[in-house]
Write a structure and sequence with these properties.
With 525 residues, the protein is mostly beta strands. The strands form 7 sheets. It has a 23-stranded parallel β-sheet that branches. A 7-stranded parallel β-sheet has the order 30-33-35-37-40-42-44, with no helix packed on it. A 4-stranded antiparallel β-sheet has the order 4-3-6-7, with no helix packed on it. The mean pLDDT is 95.
């Protein structure tokens, strides 16, 4: 066993056990000095309630192995308890003003602390160079009245020259007015949000999920929204009942999301778990997600933002996560006009999601919408109906069913044409496959460049339990059941070890001029 220090804040630490397991491993005990903190099976471990500017030794003891790591917590200028500013924490009184006052008064390097209690609040805005500590038993609970939520304007133009513009609100890839998130930060740097407490959007007790596709005053809020932020750590929290996307970093850099639990009901609309949009250098580690849409969806906006404010999503690492329930485990798209590259997903388990790896784009996303260098390694998929889907005909947006988007004929390549580059799946095991293992549909004028499958194993559920479904959301695709590989408009397929097991599994179907390099494929009953 090896231990890696991930982050030490003013009052907490996160470490990672380095192994080949996924999210959980051998049970262990965790010690700070000579004090037993907890027993756990998780690979990513966080400890809270530490003193600032103090040296510690953290020890992890497995049955036959012990490893220690030393670290020092960061300095803290002051600790401000929100109850000293008038917050009641009784779940009845509105604590917004008291919490915001504590944040406003917090000096550089200070901490704002929410002790045990339920803090009913409309959106609060964090700022630079501070720590927000939501302690054990503390809950920041969203007010249900939407009129108590500030509106973030989609785009504000310079009143003097009408040239410069700045986006504050956003909705599904466009700069549109939206309500502020329960926890918001705009242009903040060196921000840390920690604790064993809960951020509760309270959407299950409000009308956010009713007529969800209708704009009422403004578009629905996220639960955590980071706009143009840098150097942010979010650690340890339970985050649930979001009105829409749960955690939404937007045009932000150098972000760490550590040891979180993200929970929304399975039938809650558009409640994606984690959606970095036009962000670079992002780490999502040790997080469990169960939601009503995609668990993770990497995005980079629609055509206007990619043209006027281009920023690719890149250098994104997702590791030791458990993605349970949702439409897709890890999705790239579909609002992806700025492009995505250098994504590495490893040591994760996907459990009970509709799809595992899900790539979705379409004509109209633009020539900067290049999705490439996407690597999925050491992944376990359990009861995922469709482990891998790649779709360049995704039927979203008002024009999603138009002839331009859905035509199977070759269209001219122009500034609206997207591209998908290299996608690699290595050391992936899937059980309980039902509909298809890999379904990939590229554009005739812009084929998917290369799919690599290396050491991939898949076993299908019994034939009587399989579901005939449409793997990719495009027009004219008939439901399938028990497919192995179904590829169309893919330039190159490289297989280095593929084993498929299950009665009545169809032979691979390859359409178009696909170059294949196949080493070691077995399909058994």
């Amino acid at each position: 066993m090896k231990l890696q220090l991930i982050a030490a804040t003013v009052r907490s630490v996160t470490v990672e056990r380095i192994n080949n397991d996924r999210y959980e491993s051998t049970p262990c005990s965790v010690w700070i000095e000579d004090r037993l903190v907890e027993t756990t099976a998780k690979n990513v471990i966080s400890v809270f309630g530490l003193d600032p500017d103090t040296a510690y030794t953290l020890t992890v003891r497995e049955e036959n192995d012990t490893e220690s790591i030393t670290f020092r917590t960061k300095k803290e200028t002051i600790l401000l308890n929100v109850q000293s500013f008038g917050a009641k924490g009784d779940g009845i009184n509105n604590d917004t003003a008291a919490i915001q006052a504590a944040i406003a008064c917090c000096p550089k390097g200070g901490t704002v602390y929410l002790p045990k209690g339920t803090y009913l609040s409309s959106p609060v805005f964090a700022k630079s160079d501070m720590t927000l500590w939501i302690g054990s038993g503390a809950e920041l609970l969203g007010i249900t009245d939407r009129t108590q939520y500030p509106v973030l304007p989609g785009m504000v133009r310079n009143m003097y020259d009408n040239q410069a513009e700045m986006s504050f609100g956003t909705w599904e890839g466009n700069p549109l007015d939206c309500f502020a998130a329960l926890l918001s930060a705009v242009d903040a740097e060196n921000l840390t949000v920690i604790g064993e407490g809960t951020l509760n959007g309270n959407a299950d007790a409000s009308d956010w999920w009713v007529s969800h596709a209708v704009k009422r005053i403004a578009w629905r809020p996220r639960l955590v929204f980071l706009n143009r932020c840098r150097n942010v750590v979010v650690q340890g929290l339970t985050i649930r009942n979001s009105p829409s996307w749960t955690i939404h970093p937007y045009y932000s850099d150098h972000l760490q999301f550590l040891d979180l639990t993200i929970q929304n009901p399975y039938d809650s609309p558009n409640t994606d778990g984690f959606n970095p949009e036009s962000c670079t250098d992002v780490l999502l580690l040790g997080t469990k997600i169960s939601v009503g849409d995609d668990c993770i969806a990497i995005k980079s906006g629609k055509l206007y933002m990619a043209s006027a404010h281009h920023k690719e999503s890149s250098q994104i690492v997702i590791r030791n996560c458990s993605l349970e329930k949702g439409h897709g485990s890890v999705t790239v798209g579909s609002e992806i006009a700025g492009g995505v590259s250098h994504v590495h997903v490893s040591n994760c388990r996907f459990i009970g999601t509709d799809r595992g790896v899900r790539i979705k784009t379409r004509r109209g996303r633009g020539e900067r919408a290049v999705l490439t260098d996407l690597v999925f390694e050491n992944i376990w998929m359990e009861d995922v109906n469709m482990p891998v889907t790649m779709n360049m005909f995704y039927c979203c947006d008002p024009d999603g069913h138009s002839t331009y988007v859905q035509s199977q004929d070759r269209s001219p390549r122009d500034y609206r044409t997207p591209a998908v580059g290299t996608i690699t799946l290595k050391d992936v095991k899937c059980t309980g496959v039902s509909t298809s293992l890999v379904c990939a549909c590229g554009l005739p004028e812009s084929p998917i460049a290369k799919i690599t499958l290396e050491n991939v194993e898949a076993s299908y559920c019994p034939a009587e339990n399989r579901q005939a479904q449409i793997p990719v959301m495009m027009d004219g695709f008939e439901p399938v059941c028990g497919e192995s590989l179904w590829l169309k408009n893919v330039a190159e397929l490289e297989i280095n070890g593929l084993h498929i097991q299950g009665k009545a599994v169809n032979e691979p179907k390859l359409f178009g001029n696909t170059k294949t390099v196949i080493n070691g494929v077995t399909i058994t009953e």
